[in-house]
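Objective 1.3, modelling of assemblies. Example input:
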Amino acid sequence: MLNCAVLGATGYTGAELTRILLAHPNVRITHLTTRQEKSIPLREILPSVSRDVKLAITPYNFENVKRKADVVFLCLPHTEAMTTGDLFLKAGKVVIDLSADFRLKDPALYPKWYGVEHAFPARLKQAVYGLCEVNRSRIRKARLISNPGCYPTGPSIALMPLLGKKLIAPGSIIINAASGTSGAGKKLVPATQFCEVNENYTAYKVNKHQHIPEIEQNLSGAAGEKIKVTFIPHLLPVQRGILATIYAEPAKASVTEDSIRKVLENAYAKDPFVRIKPAGQFPSLKDVRHTNFCDVGVSMDVRTGRLVVFSAIDNLLKGASGQAVQNMNIRFGFPEGAGLI
Amino acid sequence: MLNCAVLGATGYTGAELTRILLAHPNVRITHLTTRQEKSIPLREILPSVSRDVKLAITPYNFENVKRKADVVFLCLPHTEAMTTGDLFLKAGKVVIDLSADFRLKDPALYPKWYGVEHAFPARLKQAVYGLCEVNRSRIRKARLISNPGCYPTGPSIALMPLLGKKLIAPGSIIINAASGTSGAGKKLVPATQFCEVNENYTAYKVNKHQHIPEIEQNLSGAAGEKIKVTFIPHLLPVQRGILATIYAEPAKASVTEDSIRKVLENAYAKDPFVRIKPAGQFPSLKDVRHTNFCDVGVSMDVRTGRLVVFSAIDNLLKGASGQAVQNMNIRFGFPEGAGLI
Amino acid sequence: MLNCAVLGATGYTGAELTRILLAHPNVRITHLTTRQEKSIPLREILPSVSRDVKLAITPYNFENVKRKADVVFLCLPHTEAMTTGDLFLKAGKVVIDLSADFRLKDPALYPKWYGVEHAFPARLKQAVYGLCEVNRSRIRKARLISNPGCYPTGPSIALMPLLGKKLIAPGSIIINAASGTSGAGKKLVPATQFCEVNENYTAYKVNKHQHIPEIEQNLSGAAGEKIKVTFIPHLLPVQRGILATIYAEPAKASVTEDSIRKVLENAYAKDPFVRIKPAGQFPSLKDVRHTNFCDVGVSMDVRTGRLVVFSAIDNLLKGASGQAVQNMNIRFGFPEGAGLI
Amino acid sequence: MLNCAVLGATGYTGAELTRILLAHPNVRITHLTTRQEKSIPLREILPSVSRDVKLAITPYNFENVKRKADVVFLCLPHTEAMTTGDLFLKAGKVVIDLSADFRLKDPALYPKWYGVEHAFPARLKQAVYGLCEVNRSRIRKARLISNPGCYPTGPSIALMPLLGKKLIAPGSIIINAASGTSGAGKKLVPATQFCEVNENYTAYKVNKHQHIPEIEQNLSGAAGEKIKVTFIPHLLPVQRGILATIYAEPAKASVTEDSIRKVLENAYAKDPFVRIKPAGQFPSLKDVRHTNFCDVGVSMDVRTGRLVVFSAIDNLLKGASGQAVQNMNIRFGFPEGAGLI
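Predicted structure (tokens):
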């Protein structure tokens, strides 16, 4: 049994991660921690927990966690994960970070998009970006896995094979994304109050969302050239799920909807969590919520010659805690779907 | 007092129209009709109606309506409005049609997008397209007003002045739209059941929605050249509202976000129902629901040089019944906001 | 034109009240105030406001308000309304208080249910309880109108005539109520976050909600004897509306469902905002939302001999701001439905 | 591996049952059937299914099912389950019926509450009512298990121990229940359209819901005397979950909230799926959705001497398919939580 600690178990991703780990056949939870000063029974944060589970979320103590855990999941606010991650790496632990702190390779991007200098820029090189389907072999040997952001996951899965095969024009990508409200976390702000979100729909962080550089890093890597995208996130009156509607120009006239779909099917033929929709069917949140799937669909607008690609995930699962467990499964040689199917 | 009849008063748009007309200071409702065989008390369809209102929705009878009504609102399924509209025009009535039956100028588009030959193609020329802010002077003299579709209204208001001034590249327009479920009408289909819509979000009629030719007709008219757009509608788990997120390339390097905003502000400086958002603010459904406003916002993605324009309306008001009343107000010389503010 | 001031215009009830007053044919808004230190354009709080409305919500200043207002609406947190109300009464203004500060006649109830001693207990006697349908003649001459609470309004309208006629057993009343989330106000608390409320339903303040003594005061007054009720409020994942499902024993065997309905119909025969449902039909939130109506329905459970009475209102309208305007209309001799229909 | 067939796998309960059985460690699905004439890939009904699952829902054929299945789950409309159940019992299969067809012991109740004569009244005696926590020992030997209704489950679990110990007055029970919309099934009716349910809340089948006799049968059995209850169901704008708010008089003055809670804790001390809330905490839908738990809470209204008991379940799990699997686990000696935790 692998010993796991979850740091920051009171938030939405921490709680979801704990839920998965509790039912996982190959692991044991050694610590659930919080930055708060008092212990909290797990059942207050995760009400779906079984009666017999007596776990508590306890105040964070580095030495305690270090003593028992083999793998440490960081569900911490960004900047805090930097330092905590560094500490556990020095202590020889495998670290899976769900924050953005180790996602970007270029340290110069942190001040611009996250408003802080990176405290341990050397760790950025060491970190393996945990987009499972793309980096599986490197994840197997990683000590520091940087779990992808919720918004970048779907579009990266959908577009990277197409860019790799030069099927779409790199400069033409527009990502219109819509996310459930759990993506905003538990912080008390007016924008996530029920009466603001319910019966509403609106764009936010227009042209300045911090996931833009992460998306561009992924797509640029696949394309072998520097790519810029337009990315507009919207807030949906639902709990979970992200649907991205992606617009792009085919790179050449010979590209068809079928050829695009075929490339995607081949790219993910052996990936248990990616499902390519058949012609005429498109992803929807209800198909992926409470699952670790990423559904992808394709339509060519024959009238304009434009390609439309859709991706859908559950932002708390494939977009956060589910993918984190998938990363752990890959890293430690468990079946990739253990605890997730 | 102007005598009004509403044909098809049991649907969402018919009921909303009736609600507005009841409180309108310049009109009297003479008939509310249904294709069903039995009378229905209005309060069963429009529960917000006051206790004293004793109106009923009665089986449709042409002669009865003809006898009293000055203006006839058609809230009928498409193809049915064609023939009924023609009849009332022959009878000398002013017809305001909320269906799509008189919206397209080119009769050849009806078989392609609506699956039927147009029964009265000559009427298409006669019809004035009731996008109030654009066609006000022609509406004043119209006998047949074709009320715009819910999806075309917002993007047309947002883009027509920009195309008219050659500020955006005509071939570059992508419209990502999301609509509340009332837009689908009352027909019993699985796709609008609560358990399908709630907590869900998905695209539908991908690259084949029947509002595409109407949008293209409007934008082409403004641009003075034939324009094709990509248009992807999505279904939102809300009752009312359409937000369109529109992507376009500026036509030249000198176009800035501010210049775009200024053009829009000037274009609608005297229009009571169009509101241009200041820099950094964007339309949302909650700002327009239960109103006749069309809110428009603008952002230039300086990193990619792409323009993002947002429009928001209430699909049952500015997208249907509110605009129909606005058209009546213009046509009959009432204050443009009568019954609507 | 009557000069109105709204103190506390940034909350849900203040904004809704402002919306009604703006369209009211007999009044002029002189002040909208806030306890915050900076002015806020009204359109930021009330986005449905027309473009031409240039009003701002300004920092509260007693002298300014006093100079111009004839009637002062208090949408203030409780305890604050006590002192402010007293000041404006001394200044000769008519005060309509939407808080609970003047609702209870017995000052001893304030420490118990609201946690504070009442600062001006003498004002409690002076205050006229603004349940329009019941106290109309006293409201006409009132200087201080205490607007009823959202939860007490519906059950009081439904039960007071039945208690007055001794048709139900006074000790048997159980009120199971469910409210939309706007009832909780704008305060940032975890319980009103979207992800807590959405897809959820639960009781709260079980057997200790502060509206209990107000309900009991109303019902006791009607019965002519001291009545205690069981009252359990629940939070609904909707924006607006309260449905109360009320259980009671008939006072005698001769009481039938029809006789109950008849008594209610007679009691409210001339009241424009109370609608008694016919047999077999029951109130629902969708029938009353965005209206000032109180719908009441009745069913006798013939198997158990128990009576079930339902009441439905929009908590922000008949349960707060709508009723406040109805009170103003009565007080100043305007048509009772002015601004409300 | 136990061979399972699900008859009627396209509805909400059939699909949820299939989902659980697919992940259950001790069973194999041999048939998923439909009354429709064409096969349907399971993934169209159950989109969360894994890519590798190639199952289809096929047209029902008795002989085929009989050949392979050890246990047959009936997710059929009522009256249809009667005959189909009888057939499979004759064929020697264990039948778990999720309809109401075998729930009531008295055949005379079927014409009254379900509108039909029972075709096989003798089977009613044979049927074991599958309220797991209450009938566990009889379920172990049952050939026909009648799975409880969604509404009866929670209140029966909450009240039966209290009635058994004579702690509450049998004639005093009022059950105010609110259910998510999945409880209404997939049938296309206006009442379950999104625009009817969303932002709405209302009572339905007032004093005539068909679950009343089932509740009374359970409670009468526990009390050892004939009990009648008042039961009012309401429709909630949520997908899943039933909260029952139950009012009752204590049988004697010595009954306290603590004594009630203690009796419940003892009654269910070893039941993995019943959780009794500590003092001051109450069940909510969010705590039980997507789980097989039944949460129970208690509050004594000391002012009126009335007892309030709450129960919450997920109507598709503990209220239908979850409990059906729990019954199968008990019947076949699997761990009671297999597939459910």
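The CA atoms of residues 133 and 271 of chain B lie 7 Å apart.
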